[in-house]
Specification:
464 residues; mainly alpha; Growth Hormone, Chain: A; 2 domains; 81% helix; globular; disordered N terminus
Length: 464
């Protein structure tokens, strides 16, 4: 009995370490790339909208495949999909070191997004599989903290590497970390988790879902670039595809996404909605502030990264405590407090001007960081604790989809306001007032959306 307990503890530690390392490298990559965008744009002569697709391509691809990969993990094994995801992500990162055009970079970001989807669709499910309910919030909090450490180091280290070694060095950093995780999984993580083993995978439903998400996201992000009728047509076609997907999943014997999780599980449905709203409202903040600090404030990438690090540092420090708190207090209370703080931070950013003090910006980043920390861990705990074991992969994939779809939507708003105000022009001094107007419009929308999210978070109900 004692030996079995020691073995279980070992499995917990190895799983937590492996998943935590991936939780670090994926957001590190995203935040580091954001700080390097001006350098990338300069080398490949990319305009503001095309440059934004360096971030968007990764997010869109991850959002498309998350739920199908989560279902595959439940059927064939979460460790297998997790390992393949790390391998794909690492290979794509290495390939980007040799990139010679903006188009090639965007294409490789798509491949990296496929690897990211496998990681996101299985990471939380693996942790939920090995940690009992009484310890789950703490483990998920550590995992979320690693995410925010990645976000913390990303802008600073990304700026440092970009300034001294060029933007390609950002992707090179992922390679040794990725190889370390793969070695750890293959040598230490011997157990497999597949509670839905033997069930069928709905390939047709997955294709319908993927095409629907592509049409909606591309239609939305391109609405101001393509003729309006084309953008609107893509959004309509994508919406119809999602309706067809939901109808099919309610009928088939072995669905990719069990619709009853949303129909009969209020906590699951509203917690995912809260995640979608929260990430939609907050993700583009770093993108806008990175450009603002480097263009209007004239900071170099390293200094700008050092300023932006304030937000994720607060997240990393506070997330484990927020997760542990949600093991004792209803997650909806803690998460709703976080959402409300985030709304305050976003509303304050509406008043940014060219002469806004650095102290104001740092204070606002701290408010946003505390809000995100209080929201993320408890909300994740609520989602994963509200479903049966055989749905852990799907639940992890669904939550990841909400996160990435929200991030994608947030960047879509960025594209939309840039397209309206700037069009296909590079951000030069004569366009700085227009850039500020674009940023202000986006933060008005984000602040209002976050206020709505507070009510969605409060309405979710109890998990205990």
């Amino acid at each position: 009995m004692e030996a079995m307990g020691m073995e279980n503890d070992s499995i917990k530690k190895i799983t937590l370490l492996s998943v935590t390392l991936t939780a670090f490298i994926t957001p590190f990559d995203v935040s580091a790339v954001n700080i390097a965008l001006p350098s990338i744009g300069k080398e490949f002569a990319m305009d503001a909208i095309w440059l934004e697709w360096v971030s968007t391509a990764y997010l869109l691809t991850s959002a498309i495949f998350l739920i199908p990969f989560g279902r595959l993990a439940d059927i064939y094994g979460r460790k297998k999909l997790f390992s393949l995801g790390v391998l794909t992500f690492t290979a794509a990162s290495l390939s980007m070191v040799f990139c010679f055009s903006g188009t090639m970079l965007v294409c490789l970001r798509v491949l990296q997004g496929i690897g990211g989807a496998m990681i996101y669709g299985t990471g939380m499910a693996l942790l939920t599989s090995v940690f009992p309910a009484q310890d789950r919030g703490k483990a998920l909090g550590i995992n979320v903290a690693a995410t925010y450490i990645g976000l913390s180091i990303g802008p600073f280290l990304g700026g440092f590497l970009t300034l001294r070694f060029g933007w390609r060095s950002i992707f090179l950093v992922n390679v040794p970390l990725g190889l370390t995780i793969i070695a750890l999984i293959l040598s230490k993580m011997r157990e497999e988790w597949a509670e839905a083993k033997g069930e069928r995978f709905d390939l047709t439903g997955s294709v319908i879902y993927c095409l629907g998400v592509i049409a909606i996201m591309y239609g939305f992000t391109s609405f101001a670039l393509l003729p309006h009728v084309v953008g609107a047509g893509l959004i309509l076609a994508g919406s119809l595809a999602i309706v067809a997907f939901v109808w099919r999943e309610a009928k088939v014997e072995s669905p990719v996404l069990d619709i009853t999780l949303f129909r009969g599980n209020r906590v699951f449905a509203l917690s995912n909605l809260a995640a979608l709203i929260n990430y939609s409202a907050t993700f583009a903040t770093t993108f806008f502030l990175s450009l603002y600090l480097q263009y209007l404030k004239k900071f170099d990438p390293e200094t700008a990264g050092g300023i932006l690090v304030c937000q994720p540092v607060v997240m990393a420090i506070c997330s484990p405590f927020a997760g542990k708190l949600s093991d004792k207090i209803e997650p909806r209370i803690v998460a709703s407090m976080g959402m409300a703080l985030g709304a305050v931070g976003l509303i304050l950013l509406i008043f940014l001007r060219a002469d806004t003090t650095l102290e104001f910006i740092i204070a606002d980043l701290i408010i946003l960081g505390l809000g995100m920390a209080l929201f993320s861990s408890p909300n994740t705990n609520a989602v994963m604790s509200s479903v049966e074991k055989r749905f852990y992969g799907v639940a992890s994939g669904t939550l990841g989809t909400m996160r990435l779809t929200g991030q994608m939507f947030s960047m879509g708003i960025a594209i939309f306001v840039f397209a309206i105000h700037l069009g296909h022009t590079q951000i030069t001094p004569e366009y700085y007032p227009v850039f500020l107007k674009s940023m202000r419009s986006a933060f008005i929308f984000f602040g209002a959306l976050s206020v709505v999210g507070v009510f969605a978070s409060l309405a979710r109900g109890k998990i205990r």
